[in-house]
Design a protein that fits this description.
The chain is 47% helix and 17% strand. The protein is α+β, with helices and mostly antiparallel strands. It has a three-stranded antiparallel β-sheet with strand order 1-2-3, with helices on one face. Strand 2 (43-52) and strand 3 (55-64) form a beta hairpin. The protein starts with a helix and ends in a 10-residue tail after the last helix. The protein binds zinc ion. Zinc ion binds next to helix 2.
Length: 158
């Protein structure tokens, strides 16, 4: 069952994202954003996304904290770019399942590099760190949905 080589490979991937985070920085034309923090560990994340025609066309973050929180948000943003909002929601739900120890979710290709974090599910204190980026995603999308909610719903297509 246990594959030590695989888990050290995962650890490398986590550290690699932590040291060289993807999509870190400001985002022009941001349409939704959220700031979240995890007081238990001291992690902070500010997520900025741009949503166009129901699709996430860009995702950037700033923040600091432990390797797990920062690697998780880095991995998450790489997956989100190009995703329809529905897909982004599916990825988030799948990741939460993986964090609850679901092995099938932990092997799901849809999670990309995030699968490297599956081992975190064994450490309840760190699960919050891993989920922080997805908390930010949910609040960002919730707030933009509220702003865009109005009579008519979907705009007319070009
Ligand atoms: Zn943390």
């Amino acid at each position: 069952m246990h594959q030590p080589e695989l888990s050290s490979l995962y650890q490398e991937l986590i550290l690699e994202h932590y040291r060289r985070p993807r999509n870190k920085g400001d985002l022009p034309g941001v349409t939704a954003e959220a700031h979240v923090h995890n007081p238990v560990c001291g992690d902070e994340i500010h997520l900025r996304i741009r949503v166009e025609d129901g699709r996430i066309t860009a995702a950037r973050f700033t923040g600091n904290g432990c390797a797990i929180s920062q690697a998780s948000i880095s991995m998450m943003t790489t997956l989100l770019e190009g995703c329809a909002l529905q897909e982004a929601g599916d990825i988030a739900a799948r990741f939460v399942e993986m964090m609850h120890g679901d092995e099938e979710a932990g092997a799901d290709q849809a999670l990309g590099d995030l699968r490297a974090l599956r081992g975190v599910s064994r450490f309840p204190v760190r699960i919050k760190c891993a989920l922080l980026g997805f908390d930010a995603l949910r609040s960002a999308l919730d707030s933009s949905a509220r702003e865009n909610a109005g009579p008519g719903g979907e705009g007319s297509s070009p």
